[in-house]
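Lecture notes, continued. The same structure-token format from the folding unit now serves as the input rather than the output. Read the line below as a description of shape only.
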């Protein structure tokens, strides 16, 4: 047999090695030197460069500068996005304006009958108080005369219904009959076919 010195391990070292390599149960060997060190995924872990860095004000300034740069970048992105949205809105407005101008230019170059300027919606001249001398003017004159005829018929009907006695009860004078207009005849108007 070999002496312990030749084997390379003392009795304590051999026991510690056997404890370290032991499997089974809930016991785990913890090296006393590792009790004070933290695993790298722990929140308390700090490498040597960070542990011995004593410039806390510089670190705080770096944090503030990073936060300021992040905010400035978000402001810049927001400004750029809004500017792009405004540019696209203006491009769309200019495109619509150009389409409208092209449409109006096309309308202006067409025949004047298609592009009616300052044409009234009724065939009646407000300055001369005359009907237009065309089919639409004659139709409007016929319709207006028909309205006047109906109004005169209503007037005569109301007068006859309200004055059945035939005389004025206050003065005693006889009532005169209300004159009605003649019914307009289509033959007297140039209404066309």
């Amino acid at each position: 047999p070999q002496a312990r010195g030749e084997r390379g391990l003392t009795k304590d070292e051999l026991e510690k090695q056997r404890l370290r390599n032991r499997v089974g149960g809930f016991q785990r060997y913890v090296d006393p030197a590792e009790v004070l060190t933290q695993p790298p995924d722990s929140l308390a872990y700090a490498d040597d460069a960070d542990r011995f860095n004593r410039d806390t004000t510089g670190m705080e300034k770096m944090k503030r500068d990073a936060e300021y740069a992040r905010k400035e970048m978000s402001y810049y992105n927001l400004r750029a996005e809004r500017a792009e949205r405004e540019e696209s809105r203006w491009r769309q407005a200019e495109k619509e304006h150009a389409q409208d101008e092209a449409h109006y230019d096309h309308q202006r170059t067409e025949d004047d009958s298609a592009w009616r300027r300052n044409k009234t919606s009724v065939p009646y001249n407000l300055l001369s108080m005359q009907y237009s001398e065309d089919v639409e003017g004659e139709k409007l004159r016929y319709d207006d005369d028909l309205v006047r005829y109906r109004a005169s018929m209503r007037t005569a009907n109301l007068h006859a219904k309200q004055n059945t006695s035939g005389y004025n009860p206050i003065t005693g004078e006889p009532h005169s009959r209300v004159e009605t207009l003649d019914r307009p005849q289509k033959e007297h108007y140039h209404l066309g076919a």
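Point for the exam: The CA atoms of residues 135 and 191 lie 5 Å apart.
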